[in-house]
Amino acid sequence: MIPAAFEYTRPATLDDAIAAVGAGGKVIAGGQSILPLLKLRVAAADRLIDIGRIKELNGYRPRPDGSLEIGALTTYAELQAATPWSTVADAIDEIGDVQVRNRGTIGGSIAHADPGSDFPAIALAFDGTAVLRGPNGEREVPLDGFFEGPFTTGIGPDEILVAIRRPAVAADAAFAYRKLAQPASGYSIVGVAALVAMSGGKVSHARVALTGVGEVAYRAKGVEEALLGSDGGDAAIAAAAAHATDGVTVNADIHADAAYRAAMAIVYTKRAIEGALGR
Amino acid sequence: MTTDILGSSVKRTEDPKFITGKGRYLDDIKLTGMVHMSILRSPYAHANIRSIDTTAAKAMPGVLAVIVGADIPYNPLPMAWPAGGASGLQNNVNTPRVLATDDVKWTGEGVAAVIAETPEQAVDALDVIAVDWEPLPTVVDSEKATQPGAPQLHENAPNNIVFDWTVGDKAGTDAAIDNAEVVVRQRIVNQRLIPNPMEVRGDIGWYNPGTEEYTVWMSSQTPHIQRLLLTAFVTGIPEHKVRVIAPDVGGAFGTKIFCYADMALVMFASKLVGGRPVKWVETRRENYQSTIHGRDHITYLEIAGKKDGEITGLRVKTYANLGGRLSTIGPGIPTTLYGRVLAGPYKFPNVHCEVIGVYTNTTFVDAYRGAGRPEATYVVERAMDLFADEIGMDHAAIRRKNFLPNDAFPYDNPSGLGTAVNGEKVYIDSGNYEPALDKALTIVDYYLLDEKRAEARKRGKYLGVGLSTYIEICGVAPSKWIGAVGEGWGAAMWESANLKVHLTGKIILTMGTQPQGQGHETTYAQIISSELGVPMEDIIVQHSDTQGTPFGYGSYGSRTSSVGSTAAIKAAGKVREKAKRYAAHMLEASVEDIEVDGANYRVKGSPDKVKTIQEIAFAIDLGFSLPDGMEPYLDETAYHDTPNTTWPFGTHIAIVEIDEETGHVDLVRYVAVDDVGNKINPMIVDGQLHGGIAQGVGQALWEGAIYSDDGQLQSGSMMDYAMPRAAWFPNLELDETVTPSPVNPIGVKGVGEAGAIASTAAVSNAVIDALSPLGIKHLDMPYTAQTVWRAIQGAKGGAAGAADHTNGSNGKGGQA
Predict the structure, then answer these.
(1) Is the confidence at residue B812, as pLDDT, over 50?
(2) Cα angle vertex B638, ends B615, B560, to 5°?
């Protein structure tokens, strides 16, 4: 478990870090994904750019309009402590183990884009956006569409992910995350995040995002559309959940073949929606 | 002689060092001038080596030497426990070389080694060794490997067969099955496991050019045996020129019993680099590929009996996957430790077992916690449920009906314990099976569980209850039996102890056994404290160094508490007898008049005439005044060869709930009533049971080594091989019955393996019981959510489940 030799640099400021990224290298934050890959020599990096001490990348910043910005270096454990959403805290409890949650960062999870990672689905359910900064300034892109493929995102080669934002949450919306974990790694075979609101006996807001199922975390828009405006009853939920893998090429590996994953995507989508609706 | 110390849950004296990080494991050892070794391992499961070019590697920074197989004059590793018996059976033996020379037989077999100044340099240089490979066809499944046309691994093993071993009465068993009212047949798989001790293996070899002596530190359960094997069989270096030290060992579960190539390699390497110590520590990924695996049986069982539940015969044919080459005692595990105990605690009149040992392109298989006995227990306990289900009998009732009666002991079972030549046998020493069963049934309210099943169904769950009424052979073993059945190490299995009471009254007990975390330093001290009346804090237990400990066979097979403790008790007895003689001398009385009460040696009828063992030790050790013929010092050595093995037993009951929608299995309750005889330290016994149960449950629910058809280990790390985690378990409810073993003076039996032997079958039976309303009669482990879901889908007639659902509702049971 010894990585091949690599250069290491630890820029003191964000500008320095952006300059370093432009010159080539792989960003390391909490190191919970990249270090095991390097140690197993399944990945190599000529240079690691350690952004771990750039203070402006920290922080949990609720804003007066109800929106929220979370610094990319915020660890899972820090987010868990800061969030007023007990159901989000519960979801974070299902990520990795105590060590991973103490070291792993939300920005790292989004930027790494592991197909089985939990946080991308959670962020998608909240209509999250990625705040990227490069030599030409900052841009904000929706996470919906940001994950381009396994371990591939819309972060430019000269950009750093600096924060995740979400807009104000729909009134009365409630969240739930339901996960079928791969027992060895703890990654999701299926992870489903649901943010659902009811108003006047109808579902007035529905966001459902899945991870582990396809090559990237995705919003299940077929589920959302079927659910929106329905009465949120058992039949409506079941009918909506049936769309969980619409248009998705379902993963298969030694732990779960495509048929089982697809079936569980439906079951866990149903359970996540039920959970969000307090059932 | 016993006092309260024996049988009390004193805290482990080892724990302060282990808990505070002051243990000294192999990788903690740093020697002056020490250099580092890494091993290049085969990326192919089966290939010829056309050539190896090490030129570039030798030029890498810090590299001192690069070794290939052809450089090493040593012999292949020994295979010390062939499948044997009266028949003089042939074993087609192939063992690994220290480094492979011409070909490799599994992914991970070592082909070259780099010695470098730092571990980093040693690993980097591996990347530039160029091997010209000629890949060959592979086979990883033991049953397929024996079929015509399968890839052949070894010239001397046609159809990849290592041995075809049988035990028991074939004619009687065939007749019992042919004439039975009911016969149930089932193919069952006991999947391959990766043992996963917390500390991986490693060695340090140090050759001293000044003395031409070697010292080898190794993470091992058997330092004395390794010295013997490495000198007499592998290297040709004289035994007295080699010292083997096992430092603190962080778990082993059997994997550290054996002679591995790396042990010889560090010796060779140290001499090659002029006597600098050479350290090698495997990575976890290497451990997964090149330290032994366990289990991996494919079994066809046939169980026959009457409609009233009386079993009349058990016929078993097993393909035992032994890997690409044989490990040290690979063939012994699925034969003697499996076939000979297949009858379990039952009075089956006829048992016959055939075991075909098979080479495949996989890591070698050897003893893993339980070693043969979990596989046997799994077969017989599954068979009992299969038979009961066929005749509609309760699972507890069928066991009770077939239990050996209490007056059966000592018992010579029909599956071959007593088939040794020369009449040397072992027997099931003792047993009393019904009370443990009754106790466990009472704890779980067994006869009220139908309500719980119904309640679970309302929640979309299937509740299942599984019994495992196991026995196990422990405390191995009488040397004459081992020798007579031709199944030994080419050696024996006695144990040794040396006990010194020093001038100040402090005691050092030196043992030939070898702890791996079991708490031997505590339990032996409890025994000696009890025997000699000396406080535990005045006793220290030493072990693990061939220089300074008496030869011993080490710790495995739950043998230490029975065989090792008896050696210690014998040494204490010799000390006590000598102390008694000296007390008589000091007190001017006859030896017959000295009575011993703990540490006090007094003259009968004269309570004021008393000497303590500390006073006696001081005087004897000084030797100023010794009676004629008495040698100075209280220093006694004892060897103990056990007259028989010990036979723990018990009833484990698992209760599971299965999620109908997902197939997820939740272990909701686990009750274990074990009879391990008397207990030296009940807390340590509980700990052993907890860990063993967890390991066995791990096999049932999560663990399994998975190979692709081309021999790549797909479950090659802890990211893909699921180890059990504490949070997945309910509180384990332990209870006991106590039937002391007659085999040793303190009535203990050994407990290291009991949990692992019993629990797999209990959980398996529970899962299948839960699925039985769907018509499912058997399902192979591990019961991952996907596996169970597919079985449920198949049973319900869903297309998704049909493909892989090989047994279940179309089970092969039937009436003859």
Answers:
(1) no
(2) 110
Q: What is the DSSP letter of B398?
A: H
B182: pLDDT strictly greater than 70:
yes
For B196-220, what is the mean pLDDT?
98
Q: What is the pLDDT of residue B87?
A: 61
Q: How confident is the model at residue B805 (pLDDT cuts 50, 70, 90)?
A: very low
Length of chain A: 279
Beta strand segments in B88-212, E: 103-104, 110-116, 130-135, 161-168, 182-193, 202-208
Q: In this predicted structure, what is the pLDDT of residue B186?
A: 98
Q: A2 to chain B nearest CA, in Å?
A: 6
Going by C-beta distance under 8 Å and a sequence separation of 6 or more, which residues neighbour residue A266?
A241, A242, A244, A245
Cis amide linkage into residue B410, ω under 30° from 0: yes
Nearest to B720 among A254, A256, A259 (CB): A254
Report the run of H or E that residue B58 belongs to, with start and end: helix B55-58
CA distance B39 to chain A (A): 13
Q: Which helix (H) or strand (E) holds B511?
A: strand B507-511
Residues of B with CB under 8 A from a CB of A: 119-120, 123-124, 127, 283-285, 661-662, 664, 702, 706, 714-715, 717-723, 784-786, 789-790, 800
> Do residues A251 and A272 touch, judged by C-beta distance below 8 A?
no
**CB within 8 Å of chain B, chain A residues 67-106:** none
- With beta carbons less than 8 A apart as the criterion, state whether B192 and B296 touch: yes
Give residue B811's pLDDT: 34
Least confident of B3-7, B353-357, B439-443, B651-655: B3-7
Stretch A250-256: mean pLDDT: 97
Tokens 């700990």 sit at which residue? B687
What is the chain A residue with the closest CA to B124?
Answer: A4
| pLDDT tens-place string over residues B2-38 | 458 999 999 999 999 999 999 999 999 999 999 999 9
| Pairing mode, strands B294-305 and B182-193 | antiparallel
Q: What is the pLDDT of residues B458-480, one digit of tens each?
A: 999 999 999 999 999 999 888 88
Which of B702, B717, B800 is nearest residue A183 as measured by Cβ atoms? B702
Cβ within 8 Å of residue B329, ≥6 positions away: B79, B80, B81, B257, B258, B366, B367, B489
Q: How far is A184 from chain B (nearest CA, A)?
A: 4
Q: Which helix (H) or strand (E) holds B48?
A: strand B47-53
What pLDDT is recorded for position B604?
A: 96
244-263 of A, contacting B, C-beta below 8 A: 254-257, 259-260, 263
B127: which chain A residues are within 8 Å (Cβ-Cβ)? 4
Q: Taking CB atoms and an 8 Å cutoff, what residues of chain A touch B786?
A: 255-257, 260
- Average pLDDT over chain A, rounded to an integer: 97
Cβ pair B302, B178 in contact under 8 A: no
CB B360 within 8 A of CB B192: no
Q: What is the mean pLDDT of residues B114-131?
A: 97
In this prediction the ipTM stands at 0.96
Radius of gyration of chain A measured on its C-alpha atoms: 19
Per-residue pLDDT, A196: 98
Helical (H) or strand (E) element with B673 = strand B665-675
The minimum CA-CA distance between B489 and chain A, rounded to whole Å, is: 35
The percentage of residues in chain B with a pLDDT greater than 70, rounded to a whole number, is 95
Nearest to B124 among A4, A184, A255 (CB): A4
- Partner residue facing A254 (CB), from B714, B723, B789: B714
